[in-house]
Amino acid sequence: MHDNLVILAGGASSRMKKPAEVSNLSEEEIAQANERSKGLIGVGPNGRPLMDYLLVNAKKAGYKNIYIIIGEQGDLFKSFYGSKDKDNDFHGLNVSFAVQYIPEGRVKPFGTADALFQAVEQYPELNTQFYSVCNSDNLYSSEALYALRESNSPNAFISYDRDAMEFPSERISRFAVAELNKDNFLLDIVEKPDAAVVESFKDAEGKIRVSMNAFKFKGEALYPYLKNCPVHPERDEKELPTVLLNLLQDFPNTALGIPFSEHVPDLTAKEDIVEVKAYLKKHFPVLDWN
Predict the structure, then answer these.
(1) Any idea where the Nucleotidyl transferase domain is (predicted)?
(2) Is 59 buried (19+), middle (13-18) or exposed (0-12) by CB count in 10 A?
């Protein structure tokens, strides 16, 4: 099993900064949503950020080395998780920071694949090891994170049952759908699937599976595809699913979809803050680092 978890936290959070469509947020919550990276918004019962809960679950899953990819203005992360650039001790986790720099001529980061590429350039030891990658604004269970660590497949991702997600149906319908073969290896990721054909993507269990950006990668194999990732023609970003699919063109049946059926709390917009706070209050009355 590997010990490395890379957390993507350098995005622009543009949807979170849009005006709220709910009225039950405090001025402080609105201010944090407008100013902070999503993973640092204080949604815990004690005002601690969502990232705390992700790190608790990562520790329970057995990860030891945490690499947080932050933006150029991401110093607030260091006030929470360690002032040094690398090797901070946070509740027994070894926390290091990688910076996703914005290329000249752009006003926002260049996407998740660019973030991971910059991170492995700053920490080249990852290119000789296995590592997991996840978002900072999703709360993955310790069981799902452990499943990535224990998978024997060179690459893997958590293949979530779409019907278990506790989101509005309109939001769920926008999720990209994973096409798997009979052995649960990834064949394709279908963006914005048409409702008329989405049933054809059911897996061996009869479930429609979606990715929530929880991956395991073999660093050495992934690196050239990260380095040469093309830009998405519509979103003008370099994206991890593109990297993975390009890898699979040359090395098919090397990315296992690990089936999970559970909700994944998500902080995308201000409307999510209330729901995530309620989830944490119910499921994490105490933040236990042991």
Answers:
(1) 35-242
(2) buried
What are the Cα distances from residue 173, in Å, to 104, 156, 166, 169, 191? 35, 23, 12, 6, 10
Residue boundaries of the structural domains of the chain: 4-284
Q: Which residues of 104-132 are buried (b: 16+ CB within 10 A; e: fewer)?
A: eeeeebbbbbbbbbbbbebbeebbeebbb
Backbone angles phi, psi at 65, to 5 degrees: -105, 120
Interatomic CA distance for residues 204 and 245, integer angstroms: 21
Contacts of 238 (CB under 8 A, 6+ apart): 110, 111, 112, 113, 114, 117, 229, 230, 231, 232
The strand pair at 93-100 and 155-161 is best described as: unpaired
- Which one, of 132, 245, 249, 110, lies nearest residue 190 by Cα? 245
pLDDT for position 186? 97
pLDDT (tens digit per residue) in 170-222? 888 888 899 999 999 999 998 878 877 888 898 988 999 999 999 999 999 99
CA distance 190 to 177: 5
Could you tell me the two tokens for 4? 């490395």
Which amino acid would we find at residue 271?
E
Contact 246, 229 (CB under 8 A): yes
What is the C-alpha separation between 160 and 154, in angstroms, rounded?
19
Judged on CB neighbours under 10 Å (0-12, 13-18, 19+), 251 is middle
The CATH number assigned to the domain with range 4-284 reads 3.90.550.10
pTM of the model as a whole? 0.96
Q: Please give the Cα distance from 183 to 241 (Å, whole number).
A: 20
